[in-house]
Specification:
mainly alpha, globular
Length: about 450
């Protein structure tokens, strides 16, 4: 056992908002609205909430239980909890690659957000002589140096937070930023729904379309909902485990997980309301895909009342959501280095920062210098996103589930004792078989269908 004293969060609110900040990110403000728009709106929301409760919540609890149970990050958690003589700890080297891969492209997207925030604040992105598509294409193709600078701003922000530690750095940063995110989101929602024709967007978002439904269509929407659950929670690569290793045991993991999932869903729903209302007020579809934020929304800002103010506020909101998420990914790799290689926090932060500076370069230049480089028909940044989301996160979640539920790993008895320790909601024993047999099957289905698609 590794008994070095572990730093803890200062308050329960700090714990919840830090873990929630890891889950709340681009997946909520950017991905959720366009996935919902492409998959029937309200019907997708219903299936998403069900998937989150019955599949996402248990997956979240596995990673929280391992981190809190060992008071270690991925670097040593399974080493301490595994049965004597077993080799579960070897998987950590595979799992941490997923977090490192996310660090290779996620800061690049945050760099885009920073560029758009500055561009909208200055006004040069609102030039009516160029379409938003032309502006975005010009930025990623002809201005990679600007994109690289913005990316390094995001990396530096993460490094500074992690350098100061859990209480002085991460908790002091994520707590006010999450509160600010919720405040801005509510205000922007209020403004969006006051726009002309916004009610059409709200109807599309909240009223299910039950006509022309088929089993294949429902299956397609269900698959999209499951994929969104994995994407938004960010489980499977040790991110949640790192924060859980700093948790106390006053409250049950079940209680904390329900609150985190509630905040995550609340933010996603508000983001959907805001974007659906804004899009329909300007007659622009919500099914524009990945271009919704950087192209469609900017086109909306050009024509809507107070468009520049709304645009600046929107990208500030997006920055908060994205930067708090990447801080958690950065910290997971930093804590891995601290635990696994027995080095100081500052050394680990320095090494991880250097790695980040190097591995983000291919993603930044994926549309310019490396535009001819592709993997299975995908550019570098898209491929990195696919591999991290559909392979590392899903397989990592499967490994954590089997480790927690199987008698060959930590075991269902130890897992149930850990998640129910403390005050609050407890998971009844009759869920044991559901956890042991149903959850791994669903994870496998997500993995196979994700690869096939």
């Amino acid at each position: 056992m590794h008994l070095k004293k572990r730093e803890q969060f200062r308050s329960r609110l700090g714990v919840i908002l830090a873990i929630a900040s890891s889950a709340v990110g681009l997946g909520n403000v950017w991905r959720f609205p366009y996935i919902a728009g492409s998959n029937g709106g309200a019907l997708f929301i219903v299936l998403y909430i069900l998937c989150l409760l019955f599949i996402g919540l248990p997956i979240l609890m596995t990673e929280l239980s391992i981190g809190r149970g060992a008071h270690k990050s991925l670097g040593h958690a399974m080493d301490d909890l595994q049965p004597a003589g077993s080799k579960w700890h070897y998987f950590k080297y595979f799992i941490v690659l997923g977090a490192i891969l996310i660090c290779g492209y996620y800061p690049v997207i945050i760099g885009w957000v920073i560029y758009y925030f500055v561009g909208l604040f200055d006004g040069f992105l609102l030039d009516p002589s160029k379409t938003s598509k032309e502006v975005f294409s010009d930025f990623v193709t002809n201005k990679p140096a600007d994109a690289l600078l913005c990316t390094y701003v995001a990396v530096f922000f993460c490094a500074a937070c992690s350098w100061l530690g859990i209480k002085k750095g991460i908790e002091r940063t994520t707590k006010p930023m999450m509160i600010l995110l919720l405040l801005f989101l509510v205000l922007l929602c209020g403004y969006a729904i006051s726009l002309p024709n916004a009610e059409k967007g709200l109807e599309k978002f909240f009223v299910p379309e039950l006509t022309d439904l088929s089993l294949s269509k429902i299956g397609s929407i269900l698959h999209a909902a499951l994929g969104q659950v994995f994407f938004t929670l960010g489980c499977g690569v040790g991110i949640i485990m790192a924060y859980a290793s700093y948790m106390g045991k006053k409250k049950t993991i079940v209680s904390e997980s329900l609150i985190v999932c509630g905040i995550d869903t609340f933010v996603a729903i508000l983001a959907g309301v805001m974007i659906f209302a804004a899009c329909y007020s300007q007659g622009i579809g919500v099914d524009a895909g990945v271009s919704l934020v950087f192209q469609s929304m900017v086109e909306i800002f050009k024509h809507m009342p107070m468009g520049q103010f709304f645009g600046v506020s929107f990208f500030f909101l997006l920055f908060i959501a994205a930067i708090t998420s990447i801080i958690s990914v950065f910290e997971s790799v930093v804590s891995f280095g601290i635990d696994c290689f027995n080095i100081s926090r500052k050394k680990s932060v320095l090494y991880v920062s250097i790695i980040n500076v190097v591995i983000t370069v291919p993603a930044v230049y994926s549309f310019s210098t490396f535009s001819n480089v592709s993997f299975f028909g995908q550019d570098i940044i898209t491929f990195e996103d696919f591999v991290s989301s559909n392979i590392f996160m899903v397989l990592g979640s499967l490994l954590f589930a089997v480790f927690c539920y199987s008698r060959y790993g930590w075991g269902i008895n130890n897992y149930m004792a850990e998640i129910n320790e403390g005050h609050g909601v407890k998971l009844p024993n009759f869920f044991r078989n559901y956890l042991r047999y149903v959850i791994p099957i669903f994870i496998l289905i997500v993995f196979v269908t994700g690869i096939m698609s």
